[in-house]
Design brief:
Blueprint lengths: L29 E4 L2 E6 L2 E5 L24 H15 L6 E2 L10 E3 L14 E4 L5 E6 L3 E7 L2 E7 L1 H5 L2 H11 L6 E4 L12 H6 L9 E2 L2 E2 L1 H11 L7 E3 L15 H4 L10 E7 L9
Parallel strand pairs: 4-7, 5-6, 10-13
Antiparallel strand pairs: 1-2, 2-3, 3-14, 6-9, 7-14, 8-9, 8-10, 11-12
The protein binds zinc ion.
Amino acid sequence: MSQMSTAPKAKITTPMKSKNVWGDRLNTPFKALGEHIACDLPGGRAMFFTRRGGVSGEPFDTLNVGLDTNDYMPAVEENRERVAQLIGIARDHWLEVKQVHGSDVVLVTEPPAPKAKKVEADGIATTLADYAAVVVTADCLPVALIAPEGVAMIHAGWRGLAADVLKKGVETLREAGATEIQAAIGPSIGVCCYEVNTWVHRAFMRYPRGTARLSNHAHLKNVARLQLQHAKIPLDMVHDVDICTMCAPRSLFYSHRRDYGADPKDTGRQASAVWRVADDARDDD
Ligand SMILES: [Zn+2]
């Protein structure tokens, strides 16, 4: 268990440098890494990928990492390989779950068996060095939890948030020994675009009107902030990149709500990953 108190020494790699597509849009601690977004916090790094830089054809163009989509799977595999290259963590060291819009968060403290079947859950916490927790989204919130003792990546849509998936994520990371946790909310649907029916509003009745519930819209990012605050993470430790997947340019993000046709599997998924990084292993980028 000594591993839980020692941060990994692995050197992090710097993905390709290219034109900054973000302009001055990224707020600290988020920063551009090529056409993607990185967020360094004490204990780890999160990366929130766009849909750019992959090989998939329309309508999955181009960096679709969703295995449960109607895309050509060899293209998805190649895209995943590219993400692995960019984060510097091979695919057999990715920790993934079968996402089911629930609130279970798994804690991984031992390297999983090769080809282990994915469990149904919506978050992965880990103390392992050189492993990345990865979720895929297309409007739902990818939320990274980072602490010097471990990291977690959570997939949080309205159902997961209503079922307290972020609270579970924080509790799970605390079980792993984490004390000072910071959170990073990646690109996801904003209140601007998230018009909902009364069912969704009802799911958030315990959150204040005007903050989480606004006329016929739901503010999932505010729900996330409030849920993290209830889990005793101070608000200044919660960082939101504040980018909406639906009204950002189509070439940047998959948006289930914007793009889905008859079959939801016709929308691609972008990747979000988090892994442990010792402060003395960071390079300048
Ligand atoms: Zn929007």
